[in-house]
Amino acid sequence: MIQSYKREALTRLRTVQGHLRAVVSMVDEERYCPELMKQVAALQASLERVNRLLLRNHLETCVSEAIQTGRGKEKIDELVEALRFNSSLTDFRHLAGLPEAAASGSADGLGDAS
Fold it and tell me: How confident is the model at residue 91 (pLDDT cuts 50, 70, 90)?
């Protein structure tokens, strides 16, 4: 793993870890539900940022190396399979100026035109 990405991912994950402990305490204290929902959304956003770092690292290291050695298809297939579980990484509607609520075509966000 590229060291700068590793440091950033670990920093973000440790922050999430502390934040999660605080949210668990909030639930235990029976705090107001919308307040809890905001905190959970913040945790999800933080984890998505970690996922983007991991994706970038994978593309710059494993996928790049695999393409150079003729094993690109295998790595790309693995990545596409992993992305099925990360719809936030495959939703580019915001870049195209499309409404966020637009139908993606499939539950996994990878889209199937049928």
Answer: confident
